[in-house]
Amino acid sequence: MEINVYQRFFEAELEYNGVKRRAASVLLISDSEAGNIKYTAAVAFMPYEDEEDFRVPFDAYFTKTIYEDRGRRSKKKEKQFIEDLPQYIDELATEVEGKIFWDKPLSDERLG
Asked: What is the CA radius of gyration of the chain?
């Protein structure tokens, strides 16, 4: 079962596939199945042409597995992963020459 443990939108900067992206959806995703757990950091860059524009394209979506092992969801681990999430997302963004403006959130955080 896949769960968005954390999601929040931030101002961002990236040009990808010829489209300027001005925002990003940042996620921590938990995926558990048959006694195994995996946590993934994910970022989706989007055009964000106005304050109502939260459409998320699938061409500028990047992920990184940050933990995978036998076990279940752990609130303690999730808290640490959320604290470390900017580091993981910055690594993904840097690979495609993008930037997240962590001090400029566009939404409240959603915890699942």
From this structure: 14
What is the distance between the alpha carbons of residues 17 and 34, in angstroms, rounded to a whole number? 38
* Residue range 6-63, pLDDT digits in tens: 999 999 999 999 999 999 999 999 999 989 999 999 999 999 877 777 777 788 999 9
| Whether the Cβ atoms of residue 71 and residue 35 lie closer than 8 Å to each other | yes
At residue 51, the 3 state secondary structure works out as coil
Token pair of 34 as six digits: 């048959």
Q: What is the pTM of this model?
A: 0.90
Average pLDDT on 78-99 reads 97
Cα torsion angle, 3, 63, 77, 71, sign: positive
What number of other Cβ atoms are within 10 A of residue 112's Cβ? 12
Tally Cβ neighbours within 10 Å of residue 93: 21
